[in-house]
Amino acid sequence: LEEDSVGEEARAIQQEQARAQRELLPALRALVPSAGAAPSSVLEDEKRSASMVAGLAESCAHVRASVAQLQACWDRQHQMFVQRLREVSYVQSKVRVLERQAALLEEEVNVHSGYSQQLSKLQKMPRAYHQTLREVARRRQFRARYAAEI
Questions:
Q1: Amino acid 128: pLDDT
Q2: CA-CA distance, 56 to 15, in Å (whole number)?
Q3: Quick one: how far is CA 104 from the chain centroid?
Q4: CA distances (Å), origin 31, targets 48, 102, 108, 114
């Protein structure tokens, strides 16, 4: 919406300037008396040129007002842009904070993964201990049989 108002004001200024150059200035130039013109025609042209100058002055005043309006629109648009940049900056800082938190959580997950592996080994310990006892018993039997044969 703001971009449209800036464009509209700029177009209004361009149109008014084009109208002044296309209509008012050539009409004013046409009223300039030629050298050696009759004093009555010069006076008549002077009266018409005064009304033309008034129209040109009105056109210039309109352009000046439009320029002020254009500046106001531009200032609003600039403020909105700066505000948007602030919002983007805020979101980026939040994203960086979340990235740091994610990295810390990943490290914590890795630590807990190590603990989990240790617990998994501890779960297997009773079975390993039982198998070790069976192996010790088997070797004792073997030693007793071997000693009986000798």
A1: 92
A2: 14
A3: 29
A4: 8, 80, 89, 97
Q: Among positive and negative, which fits the CA dihedral 139, 144, 149, 150?
A: positive
User: What letter represents residue 82's amino acid?
Assistant: V
End-to-end CA gap in the chain? 107
Structure tokens at 36: 């050696």
Tokens at residue 84, please? 């948007």
pLDDT at position 142 is 95
Of 44, 49, 43, give the one whose Cα is nearest residue 29.
49
pTM: 0.50
Please give the average pLDDT of every successive group of 10 residues along the chain, which has 150 residues. Answer: 72 86 80 73 77 84 87 90 97 97 95 90 92 96 91
The conformation of residue 117, written as its DSSP 8-state character, comes to H
